[in-house]
């Protein structure tokens, strides 16, 4: 499973931070950071989700009020949102 995070879309509600510890508050920018992610496009970050964190990653994506987080299965199929 992979997670994709569009940091430009983020509005800094930090709900994802409360759901998965891979997201951290960046108060200087007023946005969340996705730890250990690779920037694949300008302000778009991707990382693998460990099996034991899949539920938390999915929930972080579900609670994002602006759909800045997308989750994909191992076949590249979009799961959330």
From TrEMBL:
Which InterPro entries does UniProt cross-reference here? Fe-S_cluster_ET
Gene3D superfamilies associated with the record = 3.30.70.20
Q: Which PANTHER family match?
A: FERREDOXIN (PTHR36923)
A Pfam match is Fer4_15
Q: Which UniProt keywords apply?
A: Electron transport, Iron, Iron-sulfur, Metal-binding, Transport
SUPFAM superfamilies given in the database record: 4Fe-4S ferredoxins (SSF54862)
Keyword Iron-sulfur present in the record's keywords: the answer is yes
* GO MF, one annotated term: iron-sulfur cluster binding
Entry protein name? Ferredoxin
């Amino acid at each position: 499973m992979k997670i994709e995070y569009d940091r430009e879309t983020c509005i800094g509600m930090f709900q994802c931070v409360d759901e998965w510890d891979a997201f951290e508050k960046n108060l200087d920018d007023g946005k969340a950071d996705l730890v250990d992610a690779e920037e694949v496009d300008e302000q778009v970050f991707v990382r693998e989700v460990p099996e034991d964190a899949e539920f938390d990653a999915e929930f972080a994506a579900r609670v994002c009020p602006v759909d800045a987080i997308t989750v994909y299965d191992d076949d590249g199929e979009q799961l959330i949102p």
